[in-house]
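Database export, one record per block. Field names are fixed; values are copied verbatim from the stored entry.
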Amino acid sequence: MTHSRKKVLDMLAEGTINSAEAEGLLDQLNAGGTERHSDNGASAGAAGNGVPTHLYIKTEPKGDALETEEPVDVRIPLVLARAGMKLGLLIPEILALSLENHGVGIDLNSLDQSNLEELVDSLSKSPMVIDTEQVNLRIYCK
């Protein structure tokens, strides 16, 4: 089972999405967003043709925050977002709070399809990098 399919089933089990939404997402995955796995188990997706397949959000605590903050490494399959899933539902609440605490107020639930494609295009060309005294934050698409 691919990571994307497992994520859809986990969201269904948690009640984040209903069965109709899960079916739509799984159909979308079957239609063209299927993942291939390389020998090391990493998802290759459609990256071979230059189309970004995932949104990455990574934080690296530094300074005093090393003792209190955990590093964050989130990979969100874009096929879920393109199928109509709200990105905010896929991002752990603790990460959203951490982003907000560091002055990054991004409402990922307000993105529509055209905004999403613009965001993906921008982040695949130039990652968003925020460097504060407490954390390095990097958001990009690949």
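Remark 1: The chain has a mean pLDDT of 75.
Remark 2: The two ends are 21 Å apart (CA to CA).
End of record.
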